[in-house]
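Hi V.,

You were right to ask for the full record rather than a summary. Here it is.
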Amino acid sequence: MATDRSTAGGGLPPPTLVIGVGNRHRHDDAVGLDAVERVRPRLPPGVRVVAFEGESTGLLDLWEGAGLVVLVDATAPTGRPGTVHRFEGDLAPFFAAPPPTSTHGLSVGEAWRLGGLLGRRPARLVVFGVEGAEFSPGIGLSAAVAASVDPVVEAVVREVGTGGGVREPGARTDA
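Predicted structure:
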């Protein structure tokens, strides 16, 4: 369920939206939710911030019509828990499938592909993925993931503040 929603009025530039995706009851899956709560007071007026705990197809409603969407979510571990990756463009390789314990149903990448088929994507999507370590039921981030929250917040502030600059579609960079 989204905790904040609004729409742009006629004639206004497309809104900037920051979304934290996660589940507070699956340890490291809550990293996106923690990050957006910390970043909220640091963003300029007019930037919408949403803590999203619903089915990933609900992202289509949230990001439709947005100019820039910056999304923070946990990713399946590749052996480096807490590592932060910045990704933009075709998300299929990065979020090809949800982790086995995903509570999102579809992955963010699958929601992105579905949004493309339905014509319901933002103009631009930047994802900060944080490699998780622990996705079992329970509350609280692992130490490695908790240590990544402040760097993710700084990366989101920079991304929103600069408009993200121009990057090649599909470019993946560590944040």
